[in-house]
Amino acid sequence: MAGDAPSSLPVQVVEQPRLLKLKESFIAKFGSAPKFYVRAPGRVNLIGEHIDYCGYAVLPMAIEQDILIAVEPVNSDVLQLANTNSLYLDFSASINDIQIDKTKSQWHNYFLCGLKGIQEHFGLNNPTGMNCLLDGTIPPSSGLSSSSALVCCAGLVTLRANGKTLSKVELAEICTKSERYIGTEGGGMDQAISFLAEEGTAKLIEFSPLRATDVRLPSGAVFVIANSCVEMNKAATSHYNTRVMECRLATKLLSKSKGLDWKKMLRLQDVQAKLGVSLEEMLTIVEEVLHPEPYSTEEICKCLGISLEDLRSQILSQNTQDVSTFKLHQRAKHVYSEAARVLEFKKICNEAPANAIQLLGELMNQSYISCREMYECSCPELDQLVDICLQFGAVGSRLTGAGWGGCTVSMVPTDKLNTFLKNVKKAYYQSDVQSEHPLCLLTFSFLSMYPSKELRQRFYKNLSLRKNLVSHF
């Protein structure tokens, strides 16, 4: 249940090859054995992109790919972090002096976010030192929430090492806030699904208060994730935070136009709630109030009656201070329409009409077009990959995660899956363009989410390409 604490399970390490390998690596690194292991999964968002930080519900599910950390509490104030991937350098620091450098999106900073969040929540003046060895199977910067899973895992590590307990909801909310130490103004979807996910179901994640509702996906189709092999780190660029600020500015201009206290309004959902109107009516208001042309900072200041200094100090984030124009109409239009698509997606899943798969696919396609045209968070490689997936049998395909790279998620009828995988692999991963980038071929993988264990077993029995797939259900 969402209110429960994260589960703690005894495991026989010798029966778990990955844990055994991690334990052996830990001993080789630190000279002693870990005392416990902590795991947090990544996620795929089926629909509801860039709307969680606007206050709207999203519809993600967890994937098997995860962050796994072996931990040994130590009698010192030293934190030692190491990674099984040699590309990520070791890190050590005093656990009483945690410094997070927003200008560098290094892997250990995400661990420090989770650690600091728990420290500050409990006011830990002398937290336990730790040796930690991390093993991750989520492709980095792929839009599958590797960074948030690391923050969540670090929060759990710190909680357990210091003998504290929290509910899953409390943990998700703390980790959402603490990830902002790295500079990313996220909304909470990634942390919520990492903690609240359950096997066999997607989740409708709602906010204020945070809650999760099961969404049973229809039988007869699978969701397939494909990596575009273009990496995008949210904390390393201003793309993501610029969109957050555009939504925040749209909120304030819409609020002021309707006589609301715009200074207290931060999210587009707040405007709808205060006005008491439907999402469709909000789209009409957007068309009436916000013009499609980009707004300059001077025009925004004039509309709100504030100085440029006030705009930068009171509204904009640190890494958007130098942005000179903002597209408010397009961003608000995407958010309100996407929020409506999420609710429609859930409704179709609940009612399960005969053409549910086709209807859900259409919603995914609409979501992708809006992300590409209204939110401008796609990229040429994602556009190409979506087109290929639709060409070879997907009923719906869209980018998932922040965008500007990362992965697509496609809904594919089960009877078309074998040919879909074969053709997509050939068209995207073995094309002349992609062959110039061997990393893309090496990182190619599909992660399929199944609506039932029976379907998974039947699929594995019949699939000759199973080495390229990892199932969740």
Brief characterization of the structure:
The chain has 16 helices and 14 strands. By secondary structure, the chain is α+β, with helices and mostly antiparallel strands. The chain has 2 domains: 13-215, Ribosomal Protein S5, domain 2; 218-472, de novo design (two linked rop proteins).
Question: What features would you describe in this structure?
Answer:
- With 473 residues, the chain is an alpha+beta fold.
- It has 2 domains: 13-215, Ribosomal Protein S5, domain 2 (2-Layer Sandwich); 218-472, de novo design (two linked rop proteins) (Up-down Bundle), CATH 1.20.1440.
- 43% of the residues lie in helices and 18% in strands.
- It is built from 16 helices and 14 strands.
- It has helices at residues 17-30, 107-122, 146-161, 168-178, 189-196, 239-257, 268-275, 279-289, 297-304, 308-315, 328-351, 356-373, 380-391, 417-429, 438-443, 453-462; strands at 36-47, 59-74, 78-83, 91-94, 129-136, 202-206, 211-215, 221-227, 295-296, 325-326, 396-400, 407-413, 446-449, 469-471.
- The chain has a 5-stranded mixed beta sheet, with helices on both faces. A 5-stranded mixed beta sheet has the order 11-12-8-13-14. A two-stranded antiparallel ribbon has the order 6-7.
- Helix 6 runs parallel beside helix 7 (268-275), helix 6 packs across helix 11 and helix 13 (380-391) runs antiparallel to helix 14 (417-429).
- The longest helix is centred in the C-terminal third of the chain and has 24 residues, at 328-351.
- It is globular.
- The model is unreliable at 432-473 (pLDDT under 50).
